[in-house]
Amino acid sequence: MAIRNRELCNSFSEDDLEKYGFFDGKYIKISDQIIEAIQTDVKEEIKQLPKVNQDYVDQIVHSRSLHYSKKLHGQRMLKNIRPDKVADKCKHYFNPAYQKLKEF
Protein backbone atom coordinates (compact mmCIF):
# COMPACT_ATOMS: atom_id res chain seq x y z
CA MET A 1 0.00 0.00 0.00
CA ALA A 2 1.40 3.37 -1.00
CA ILE A 3 0.70 5.15 2.28
CA ARG A 4 2.83 2.62 4.18
CA ASN A 5 5.82 3.75 2.13
CA ARG A 6 5.41 7.43 3.02
CA GLU A 7 8.34 8.68 5.08
CA LEU A 8 6.15 10.28 7.76
CA CYS A 9 4.28 7.06 8.35
CA ASN A 10 7.44 5.07 8.95
CA SER A 11 8.24 6.96 12.14
CA PHE A 12 5.23 5.87 14.18
CA SER A 13 3.71 2.57 15.15
CA GLU A 14 0.85 1.47 12.92
CA ASP A 15 -0.52 -0.33 15.96
CA ASP A 16 -1.05 2.97 17.76
CA LEU A 17 -2.79 5.30 15.31
CA GLU A 18 -4.06 7.59 18.05
CA LYS A 19 -0.52 8.80 18.64
CA TYR A 20 -0.13 9.88 15.01
CA GLY A 21 0.33 13.59 14.50
CA PHE A 22 3.46 15.35 15.73
CA PHE A 23 6.76 14.87 13.88
CA ASP A 24 9.77 17.06 14.67
CA GLY A 25 7.50 19.61 16.37
CA LYS A 26 5.16 19.87 13.37
CA TYR A 27 1.59 18.52 13.28
CA ILE A 28 0.84 16.34 10.25
CA LYS A 29 -2.79 15.39 9.61
CA ILE A 30 -3.27 11.74 8.66
CA SER A 31 -6.04 12.77 6.24
CA ASP A 32 -3.48 14.87 4.34
CA GLN A 33 -1.23 11.82 4.14
CA ILE A 34 -4.12 9.70 2.79
CA ILE A 35 -4.90 12.35 0.19
CA GLU A 36 -1.25 12.55 -0.91
CA ALA A 37 -0.93 8.76 -1.00
CA ILE A 38 -3.97 8.37 -3.24
CA GLN A 39 -3.40 11.33 -5.52
CA THR A 40 0.34 10.89 -5.96
CA ASP A 41 1.85 7.73 -4.48
CA VAL A 42 -0.68 5.28 -5.93
CA LYS A 43 -0.27 6.75 -9.38
CA GLU A 44 3.52 6.53 -9.12
CA GLU A 45 3.28 2.93 -7.91
CA ILE A 46 1.00 2.00 -10.81
CA LYS A 47 3.48 3.47 -13.30
CA GLN A 48 6.15 1.10 -11.93
CA LEU A 49 4.11 -2.10 -12.31
CA PRO A 50 5.52 -4.52 -14.88
CA LYS A 51 3.37 -6.17 -17.54
CA VAL A 52 0.39 -3.83 -17.40
CA ASN A 53 -1.63 -2.28 -20.20
CA GLN A 54 0.04 1.09 -20.74
CA ASP A 55 -3.22 2.66 -21.97
CA TYR A 56 -4.89 1.85 -18.63
CA VAL A 57 -1.86 3.11 -16.71
CA ASP A 58 -1.99 6.42 -18.59
CA GLN A 59 -5.73 6.76 -17.91
CA ILE A 60 -5.22 6.18 -14.19
CA VAL A 61 -2.19 8.46 -13.91
CA HIS A 62 -3.98 11.32 -15.68
CA SER A 63 -7.34 10.74 -13.97
CA ARG A 64 -8.73 13.52 -11.79
CA SER A 65 -11.31 11.17 -10.30
CA LEU A 66 -8.72 9.14 -8.37
CA HIS A 67 -8.71 11.17 -5.18
CA TYR A 68 -9.76 11.24 -1.54
CA SER A 69 -11.75 14.02 0.06
CA LYS A 70 -12.70 13.84 3.71
CA LYS A 71 -15.79 15.90 2.88
CA LEU A 72 -16.85 13.63 0.00
CA HIS A 73 -15.61 10.24 1.19
CA GLY A 74 -15.33 10.55 4.98
CA GLN A 75 -18.96 9.78 5.78
CA ARG A 76 -18.95 6.71 3.54
CA MET A 77 -15.68 5.56 5.08
CA LEU A 78 -17.05 5.96 8.62
CA LYS A 79 -20.18 3.99 7.73
CA ASN A 80 -17.98 1.09 6.63
CA ILE A 81 -15.54 0.85 9.53
CA ARG A 82 -15.44 -2.23 11.71
CA PRO A 83 -15.29 -1.02 15.32
CA ASP A 84 -13.51 -4.17 16.52
CA LYS A 85 -10.71 -3.55 14.00
CA VAL A 86 -10.47 0.14 14.96
CA ALA A 87 -10.38 -0.81 18.67
CA ASP A 88 -7.32 -2.99 17.98
CA LYS A 89 -5.41 -0.01 16.57
CA CYS A 90 -6.83 2.85 18.68
CA LYS A 91 -6.24 1.69 22.21
CA HIS A 92 -6.12 4.94 24.18
CA TYR A 93 -9.46 6.60 23.48
CA PHE A 94 -11.53 4.61 21.02
CA ASN A 95 -11.15 1.16 22.56
CA PRO A 96 -12.25 2.05 26.12
CA ALA A 97 -15.24 4.04 24.84
CA TYR A 98 -16.18 1.26 22.42
CA GLN A 99 -15.96 -1.39 25.16
CA LYS A 100 -18.29 0.66 27.39
CA LEU A 101 -20.77 1.06 24.52
CA LYS A 102 -20.66 -2.69 23.85
CA GLU A 103 -21.48 -3.38 27.50
CA PHE A 104 -24.34 -0.86 27.55
Helix segment tally: 5
**Average pLDDT metric:** 79
Question: Strand percentage, roughly?
Answer: under 5%
Based on secondary structure, the structural category is mainly alpha
Q: For the terminal residues, how far apart are their CA atoms?
A: 37 Å
Q: Strand-and-helix sequence, N→C?
A: EEHHHHH
How many beta-strand elements?
Answer: 2
**Widest beta sheet: strand line-up:** 1-2
Cα Rg: 17 Å
Biggest β-sheet, characterized? Answer: 2 strands, antiparallel
Share of residues in helices: 40-55%
Outline the low-pLDDT stretches: none
Form type = elongated
Please give the structural blueprint.
Layout lengths: L21 E2 L2 E2 L2 H19 L5 H8 L8 H10 L3 H7 L4 H10 L1
Antiparallel strand pairs: 1-2
Fold and architecture overview:
The structure is a single chain. With 104 residues, the protein is mostly helical. The chain has a two-stranded antiparallel sheet. A hairpin with a 2-residue loop joins strand 1 and strand 2. It starts with 21 loop residues before the first strand and ends with a helix. The model has no long low-confidence stretch (mean pLDDT 79).
Short synopsis of the structure:
The protein is mainly alpha-helical. It is built from five helices and two strands.
Features:
two-stranded antiparallel ribbon, 104 residues, mainly alpha, 4% strand, 52% helix, single chain, 2 strands
